[in-house]
Specification:
The N and C termini lie far apart (about 30 Å). The protein has a domain of about 70 residues. Strand 6 and strand 7 form a beta hairpin. Helix content is about 5%, strand content about 35%. It is mainly β. The strands form two sheets. The chain has a five-stranded antiparallel β-sheet with strand order 3-7-6-5-4.
Length: about 100
């Protein structure tokens, strides 16, 4: 029995959510720091944030690496963050589905 091409397959996960596989390009939309965090590091108030690793996408503004930030005590929205230019991004699949939800 031949195995399906994993780059073209969308598998069903428990709970009815769809898991996308392969190198589907994500659409990044810039977010205001005020949308994602209770306090903004731009106002001189540092916040303690745990990152969850680098992602394959690069920052559209400076081509720096993006880090995944999930919801935490002072973080309202999961997002991608560029430490080089302090920019936040939402990520979606081409069909409009959110890429940063579990």
């Amino acid at each position: 029995m031949p195995y399906p091409d994993t780059d073209a397959v969308q598998g069903q996960m428990a709970g009815g959510t769809t898991r996308r596989t392969g190198d589907v390009p994500l659409i990044l939309t810039q977010l205001s720091p005020h949308q994602v965090a209770d306090t903004s590091p731009l106002h001189g108030q540092p916040i303690d944030v745990m990152t969850f690793g680098m992602v394959r996408e690069l920052c559209p503004a400076c081509q720096g690496g993006l880090k995944l930030i999930l919801r935490q005590s002072s973080i309202r929205v999961a997002h991608l963050f560029c430490a080089d230019c302090a920019t936040c991004y939402d990520a979606r699949y081409p069909d409009g589905a959110p890429a940063l939800t579990i």
